[in-house]
Amino acid sequence: MALTRTAPDRARGTRARPPGAGRPGWRRRRDAIGLVFALPALALFAAFAIYPMLRVFQLSLYDYNLTSPPVWVGLDNFRFLFGDDRFLASLGASLFYVVITYGPAVLLALVLALGLNNRMRGSAFVRLLYFAPVATSWVAVSVIWRLVLQPEGLLNQTLNTDIPWLTSSTWAKWAIAIAAIWKEVGFFLIIFLAGLQNVPKDLLEAASLDGAGALRRLRYVTLPLLKPITVVVLVMAVIRGFQSFSPQVVLTGGSFGTEVINLFVYKTAFASARMGRASAVAVLMFVLLLMVTFVQLRALRRSA
Amino acid sequence: MSTGAMVVSRKRRPVGKVVVFTLLLAGGLVFASVFVYAALSAVKPADEVLASPMRWLPSQWLWSNFTLPFEQAPFARYYLNSTVVGVSVTLLNVVTCTLAGYSFSKFAYRGRNVLFFVVLATLMVPLEVIYVPLYALVFDLGWVNSFAGLIIPSATSAFGIFLMRQSIDGLPDELLEAARIDGAGELRILRHVVAPMMVSPMAALALFIFMTNWDSHLWPLLVGNDADHQTLPVGLAAMQANNLGSGGLPMMMAAALLALLPTLLLFLVLQRKFVEGITMTAGIK
């Protein structure tokens, strides 16, 4: 007790010093130590996040193959890309993947969250079933889904169909989306369940006492309160979608119209050794993600 | 106050609830059936895996299929590499993020807020945007196909710093002042006052980082693609692509299940921490 009482006294003493003198020496020394604590992280960020971030913009204006010095080409990389069918197709493949995977995944997660948001003993177990894929690695589940999606695999045998899921331009993008929905639903379910915890119980009870049925409570109380979280979820969904790489690599290798943008960058940079052009794609991807985020955040602000 | 409403809702017959629950359970079992299918396929004789019509159960249970990945592919090596990289990255993140979080929370040096803002801004930039120049840098450092290349670029995280700063913000300054008056240095305070009270957020961070790293595929594929440095995702994808070994589909299922087992078990044991970590990535307290 005695110790904690002296602390504010000392603090008051320091504030009483003339402002010109600034912080006292011991205080400044202590804060300098504080800065030192941040240095390891800051150095890592400077080298492995900020420097590459700046460099990706620079490299997008060069022709560069890693071994010989970069050659300035101005906007040629961008000009090439906008006339390149393969790039445009990969953009289309990514958009398809984002919409067809994350639209259903987010919607399903929301519905499941509304159903599982209770303290019933069974619900905890059911939640586990949906969470489990989130705790597994993309490559491992893609290897498993490769079997599920074989012509004689689990999916066809269950549906009693004969669909060449992984070897047809019609079906491959749907097949990957199905596997990805299975993998991703639990992630958004976790977030929606947390969001539902923040919906005040009193509000729902008050609505219930006023005679509002379950559907009206959902429509006029729960969903409006979930709106901010839904916007965050959609931003995350788009970012996660554009990062997709492993399911395409393992399930199709990018064939049959599944070469998503990230796989296109990878192949451009490391199979064709065109680091400059790959950087230009990365810049476009960054601008796209930034735009999506801002549009969604604005939508949030308008609705709030 | 609210007891009246609770009694009312408890009196209502929960028939609807039972129907909803049954539907949710059925959906969950459909989800889980993929794992069950993989597990049963792993212990089948190879020619039964894609038999038509499909039989769930194997005619004989070949548990020995689980040794195939170790015999026909360097699976133990993949496992060891993933463990070494995962544990190192996790420990480094806990240290660097706790240090930086403490620094951003409890000290008042010039530029602190700007630096913190810059760190947060990097959250907007996924690896996928920067990996080409990042690879060029690691290449110039001579870290391609080395543990340094696999570990050091992932040694800190903006999310982790944010998480630790938020948590340390909750510690009363008086506590630190008291320790200072007792003559403790800043590092001592961090180790003996701050860290012991931050075990819970540190554990959530560790779990989140380890699981993310265990899943990491693209970066290890770039900087650890020789025989000595392949991690599980890289090795597993290579086994799949090259039809490595003659163990066929049961071996691949066994390998995939063995690869996902550690994080699945961690999740089952530490469910709450796992949920906490994911929830915090969405910025929900």
UniProtKB/TrEMBL annotation, chain A:
As for membrane topology, the entry says: Multi-pass membrane protein
Cite the ABC transmembrane type-1 domain residue spans from the record. Answer: 91-296
The cross-references to InterPro entries, in alphabetical order and at most eight, read: ABC_transporter_permease, MetI-like, MetI-like_sf
- Species of origin: Jiangella anatolica
A Pfam match:
BPD_transp_1
- Primary location: membrane
Q: Which domain of life is it from?
A: Bacteria
How is this protein named in the record?
Sugar ABC transporter permease
Q: Which GO BP terms sit in this record?
A: transmembrane transport
Q: Membrane spanning segments where?
A: 32-54, 95-116, 128-148, 174-196, 217-239, 245-266, 278-297
Q: Does the keyword Transmembrane apply?
A: yes
Q: Does the keyword Transmembrane helix apply?
A: yes
Query: Taxonomy-wise, where does this protein's organism fall, top ranks first?
Result: Bacteria, Bacillati, Actinomycetota, Actinomycetes, Jiangellales
Query: Region entry Disordered: which residue ranges?
Result: 1-26
Gene Ontology CC terms: plasma membrane
Which UniProt key words apply to this protein? Answer: Cell membrane, Membrane, Transmembrane, Transmembrane helix, Transport
Question: Which Gene3D superfamilies does this chain map to?
Answer: MetI-like
**Family membership:** Belongs to the binding-protein-dependent transport system permease family.
